[in-house]
């Protein structure tokens, strides 16, 4: 054995061996180095993720605490505002009551107190004496302790289950309570209705409303069926403006006919309007007839045509 080998053996014995180091090999495999690097990388990423999650958790906790403090502060402000408003309203009410006492006026009802003269929504008012008689007629007490007129009225309608019937509006360009007549009833009468015949005058109003509704409906359909270019043009806008003007001009007449407040001297001119404009309505009426399957050769169309020609002549 030579000196070189002896020295190598002694040096290898004196050098400390690292953990996991393979002393039998002088070289390390690249796969082992890559595996060690991957393990260190995964460990670092897990540590960073844990630190990030901890920071986010602390931030969420701080945000929740701040939101809770803001909510408590907002509730406190609302409570203080409500108390301040209540004190201000109480002070104003006290001053108003003092002023009314000084002037000899009746005191105002307290807040939340029911107005004795108020009528429940959806019911028609009945005089108190008449209401008491009606309750007695139903074998019910005319009044109970601390019952106001509104509560008594509500109790009466609850007993009889009677609600106010609201008039139904017709569907048309001008909604009206005038009931439209059928096309077979659109014949002009032989003479102008007399002033004292209320039913005939009302029927004439219904005829007028039906005629104008038919005209306006056909007019609106004609305007809506135009091309968009024509509608956007100056003539199209002028036609639509004329239509709106006619609607606004005829609405007061509808309201007068509904309330039957048209002067008696205006009934003959209205009758003339029917005679003059009815031939122009024939086209619109027969167009509507054809839509519903009634032709000019049918019995209804011939009846309307014969009646119209006789009145126009």
TrEMBL record:
Top-level division of the source organism's lineage: Eukaryota
Basic and acidic residues biased stretches: 44-56, 71-91
GO cellular component: U2-type post-spliceosomal complex; U4/U6 x U5 tri-snRNP complex; U5 snRNP
Location of the region described as Disordered in the Swiss-Prot/TrEMBL record: 1-26, 44-125
Domain named Pre-mRNA processing factor 4 (PRP4)-like: residues: 132-159
InterPro entries: PRP4-like, PRP4-like_sf, PRPF18
Signal peptide positions on this chain: none
Short name of one Pfam family: PRP4
GO biological-process terms attached to the record: generation of catalytic spliceosome for second transesterification step
The protein's name: Pre-mRNA processing factor 4 (PRP4)-like domain-containing protein
Lineage of the species this protein comes from: Eukaryota, Fungi, Dikarya, Ascomycota, Pezizomycotina
């Amino acid at each position: 054995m030579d000196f070189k080998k002896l020295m190598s053996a002694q040096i290898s014995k004196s050098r400390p061996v690292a953990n996991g180091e393979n002393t039998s090999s002088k070289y390390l495999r690249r796969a082992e180095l890559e595996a060690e690097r991957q393990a260190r990388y995964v460990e670092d990423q897990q540590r960073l993720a844990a630190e990030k999650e901890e920071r986010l958790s602390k931030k969420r906790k701080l945000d929740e605490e701040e939101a809770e403090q803001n909510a408590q502060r907002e509730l406190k402000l609302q409570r203080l505002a409500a108390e301040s408003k209540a004190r201000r309203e109480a002070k104003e009410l006290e001053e108003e009551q003092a002023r009314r006492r000084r002037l000899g006026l009746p005191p105002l009802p307290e807040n939340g107190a029911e107005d004795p003269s108020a009528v429940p929504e959806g019911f028609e008012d009945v005089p108190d004496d008449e209401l008491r008689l009606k309750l007695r007629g139903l074998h019910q007490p005319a009044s109970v302790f601390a019952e106001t007129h509104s509560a008594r009225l509500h109790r009466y309608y609850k007993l009889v289950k009677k609600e106010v019937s609201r008039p139904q509006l017709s569907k048309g360009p001008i909604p009206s309570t005038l009931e439209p007549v059928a096309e077979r009833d659109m014949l002009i009468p032989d003479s102008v209705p007399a002033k004292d015949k209320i039913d005939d005058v009302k029927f004439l109003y219904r005829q007028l409303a039906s005629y104008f509704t038919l005209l306006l409906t056909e007019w609106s359909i004609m305007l809506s069926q135009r091309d968009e270019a024509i509608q956007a043009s100056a003539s199209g806008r002028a036609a639509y403006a004329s239509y709106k003007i006619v609607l606004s001009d005829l609405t007061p007449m509808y309201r007068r006919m509904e309330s039957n407040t048209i002067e008696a001297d205006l009934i003959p001119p209205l009758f003339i309007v029917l005679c003059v404009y009815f031939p122009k309505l024939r086209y619109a009426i027969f167009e509507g007839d054809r839509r519903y399957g009634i032709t000019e050769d049918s019995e209804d169309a011939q009846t309307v045509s014969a009646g119209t020609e006789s009145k126009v002549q």
